[in-house]
Amino acid sequence: MSLLGAAGCQNPFDGADPPPAPPAPDAADAGAVGAAPVGSPSQWASPTASPSATPSKAASPAATGSPGAQTAQAAQAAQPVQPVHKVLTQAESKPVYELDPSRKVVALTIDDGPDPRYTPAVLDLLQKYGIRATFFLIGENAVEHPALVREIADRGHHIANHTWTHPDLRHLSDAKVKDELERTSDLLLKTTGRQPTWFRAPGGDWSDSSLRIAADLGLRNMAWSVDPRDWARPGTSAIIDTILKDVRPGSIVLNHDGGGDRSQTVAAIKAYLPVLVDSGYFFTAPPN
């Protein structure tokens, strides 16, 4: 049973931005992309301004050459970004396994990155079909590849917390669990300017401690309903077959772009995305 259903069937992704518009397709791709209902339902909020947008150089205080303006700007930049945590209800603290099954919507989630070998290819495929996904990032990977973290965010995808070292949280003390989650959230906020609002326990192995600490940090918990076990490298065909067989309206799909050789996953995404799109599915991610 969906824990979302137990929480009153409120869609936790309500208000999510529509997916970014894909680039104009090549003639060979026009049929698949043009037929895709990847636009948002009318009740979704209007898209927000791109996080990559920056003030023009002429408007920058430093560009004026004023020492006072430069000093003020430097002081402001030196101030640490202070996280603001949302207070969660008990229902919001439970892991979400699926979305509203009455809507033909899929949430695509990508775990264990970023990885410079595979994340860029995944990003390009998502852009091709105008799909917005959720990337659950590992802190020790994110700190090594901050530019890639920013690229994920700048392309409009949702940035989420997947711990710092990918441990089994069930065997850690409360202090260590808090360090794994808080350290990762702080890094992602510092890197992207966005406070993470969703968390996924490695292996889906939540504990009472991790649920409580995640709630204290304003992190909701996202599980999944479709798992092709791509991390085990079962073969591209096996990944594709599992996803196309198991996806239903409201599914949350688990894939990986990090943690090892993910070439099978990239090949599978390339194959199954146009099939789901042509089948009438659209894709969603939580609001930033």
C-alpha geometry? globular
Number of strands: 7
Strand content range: 5-15%
Helicity, in percent? 25-40%
How many DSSP helices? 10
By secondary-structure content and strand pairing, the structural class works out as alpha/beta
Q: Over the alpha carbons, how many angstroms does the gyration radius reach?
A: 20 Å
Alpha carbon gap, first and last residue: 27 Å
Short précis:
By secondary structure, the protein is of the alpha/beta class. Helix content is 34%, strand content 10%.
Features:
288 residues; 10 helices; five-stranded parallel β-sheet; two-stranded parallel ribbon
Question: Any overview of this molecule?
Answer:
It is built from 10 helices and 7 strands. Helix 4 links the parallel strand 1 and strand 2. It is globular. The two termini are 27 Å apart.
List the helices and strands and how they pair.
Layout: H1 3-6, H2 30-34, H3 67-78, E1 105-113, H4 119-128, E2 134-137, H5 139-142, H6 146-154, E3 158-161, H7 174-192, E4 198-199, H8 208-216, E5 220-221, H9 236-246, E6 252-256, H10 263-278, E7 282-284
Parallel strand pairs: 1-2, 1-6, 1-7, 2-3, 4-5
